[in-house]
Amino acid sequence: MPNSHLDSDYFQPITGIINMKQNATGGPLYIDIYMYGFRSAFGSLHGFHIHTYGDLKEGCQSTGGHFNPFGKDHGAPVTLDLGNVQPDHQGVVNTDMIDNVASLIGENSVIGRAFVIHSGEDDLGLGGFPDSRTTGHAGPRLACCVIGRSEQ
């Protein structure tokens, strides 16, 4: 869902679906991403993260900070930050990822949390900006969704 609380200079009508599958406890999490409505320049990168809360009452602003149950600096392999996604020339992201830290079960489950797409590239903690080591300096939140369950 697009972030309704975003300044009109940044607003993009992003929508789509993200499916996840985990075949075994502690096994890799397979993430299939299909989103469209990006208006950014072809080749631009957008930070893609799991945020702590699945609370959308204030748009993407109420999803809290990045979900980081292990207290690691941003960009570390165990921070549950998923890096960047890159829309094609039609504003579509159609990609998949494998994450070896996120889980659908257990104390640190991502169920009930939120995926958030940011306006800028995630610098993976290496950018030298004051917020690089906490947020990847990825900019405002463009769109978000609650991570839920389905039968399939």
TrEMBL record:
SUPFAM superfamilies linked: Cu,Zn superoxide dismutase-like
Gene3D superfamilies: Superoxide dismutase, copper/zinc binding domain
PROSITE patterns xref list: SOD_CU_ZN_2
Family: Belongs to the Cu-Zn superoxide dismutase family.
Reaction(s) this enzyme catalyzes, per UniProt: 2 superoxide + 2 H(+) = H2O2 + O2
Superkingdom in the source lineage: Eukaryota
GO molecular function: copper ion binding; superoxide dismutase activity
Oxidoreductase in keyword set: yes
Bound cofactor: record note: Binds 1 zinc ion per subunit.
Cofactor: Zn(2+); Cu cation
Coiled-coil stretches noted in the UniProt entry, renumbered to this chain: none
Alphabetical keyword list: Copper, Metal-binding, Oxidoreductase, Zinc
Residue span, Superoxide dismutase copper/zinc binding domain: 15-147
Name this polypeptide is given: Superoxide dismutase [Cu-Zn]
Function: Destroys radicals which are normally produced within the cells and which are toxic to biological systems.
EC identifiers of the protein: 1.15.1.1
InterPro entries according to UniProt: SOD-like_Cu/Zn_dom_sf, SOD_Cu/Zn_/chaperone, SOD_Cu/Zn_BS, SOD_Cu_Zn_dom
Pfam family, one: Sod_Cu
